[in-house]
Amino acid sequence: MNRKVLFVDDDELMLDSYKRRFAKKFDLSLANDGKQGLEVLQKKYPFAVIISDFRMPKMDGVAFLAQAQKMTQDTTRIMLTGQAGFQDTVNAVNEGNIFRFLTKPCQPELLENAVEAGIEQFRLINAERELLENTLTGCIKMFSEVLSLSQPDAFSRASRLRHYINLMASHLELENKWQYKLAAVLSQIGFISLPTDLLKKLNEHVDLTATEEKMVAGIPEIAYSLIKKIPRLEAIAEMVRIQKLTFNESQEYTRKKDGHTIALGAQLLKIAIDYDAEIMKGAARQEARTILNSKKADYNPEFLDALQYIGVGNESLVTKSITADELQIDMVLDENIIANNGHILVSRGQVVTEAVLRRVENFSSGMALAEPLRVKCHSKSL
């Protein structure tokens, strides 16, 4: 359990007393003003509880806790002061979202109990969020697998986008990574609205008519209209809606909407989608990165740099030709699985899941498949 606690007070004697009293009970950090407190937050995030004095020079407790809330929303915040009036209290609660408001002098036992309560509050918030994230992730995974069977190309692409975004977000240590991965999975849902003939032209990279181009351009809006109906996925829906914004346009969006997380998600989607498009046209990874770098103004420079980590670690994957009976979960399809009548069952690039395996088994029992199948897998799967 996270028991990291930060005390912020301009009184060195108070900080010394906190250290003597609580150093053995909590994972304690101290700061002597709001600025230093924010620096400690950045370096040692996340804290379970922050306790701040109200009256401090340069940045008072209300301003500090308001900034702290922006940096770490889940952390429990406690205000400790001997000089607050009614309006000060109202401001602290409204602006800093205070969990407890304690007055000086505060009995050590009372302060300790408040900190323990704050730690428990932090645990409950994170437990609820983890449950929500796992539930949403499981539901969306099931949903995407079902749709992958009806639109294999679009949802094979979604699987690749999720892989790219997970690698970039992990390398950059981005928070809210689960949101970005969900955005990748759901970003292709708008393709269900396109006619079969248009989907075929897209897969074959055939030139489109003006009307068809307009239909494809409307996919993010269609996806947005579907996703926003799911409670608590409004931010993810917005990421998908603005996925085509350039880097400068997304920065302007952040300034106007205060939507930093949403803008980051949209930037990740844009670079992942454009990178994948080049890969699927036949470009090697380095060539695809070079193409995107030639348009570097369109992309977040940190994400462009992170592209180099895509594919690292896959050197152990080997290409193998197998029969349908030899197909296994976690193999990656190196070409489309096609029925003898020309129908694409599963698209190239798809990771084999339980649903994919069942689909292939069901079709192979009643309809001949074009074999052998070409897959990529780890050498231990051979």
Task: Give structural notes.
The strands form 3 sheets. A 5-stranded parallel sheet has the order 2-1-3-4-5, sandwiched between helices. A 3-stranded antiparallel sheet has the order 6-10-7, with no helix packed on it. It folds into 3 domains: 122 residues, Rossmann fold (3-Layer(aba) Sandwich); 162 residues, Hypothetical protein af1432 (Orthogonal Bundle); 67 residues, Molybdopterin biosynthesis moea protein, domain 2 (Alpha-Beta Complex). 55% of the residues lie in helices and 12% in strands. The longest helix has 43 residues. It contains 16 helices and 10 strands.
Key descriptive features of the protein:
382 residues; alpha/beta; Rossmann fold; Hypothetical protein af1432; Molybdopterin biosynthesis moea protein, domain 2; 3-stranded antiparallel sheet; 16 helices; 55% helix
Run of helices and strands = EHEHEHEHEHHHHHHHHHHHEEEEHE
How is the biggest beta sheet arranged?
A: 5 strands, parallel
Mean pLDDT: 85
Shape: elongated
Distance between the termini: 42 Å
What is the CA-atom radius of gyration, in angstroms? 26 Å
Low confidence ranges? none
Strand content: 5-15%
Put simply, the count of helices is: 16
How many domains is the backbone divided into?
3
Give the strand line-up of the largest sheet. 2-1-3-4-5
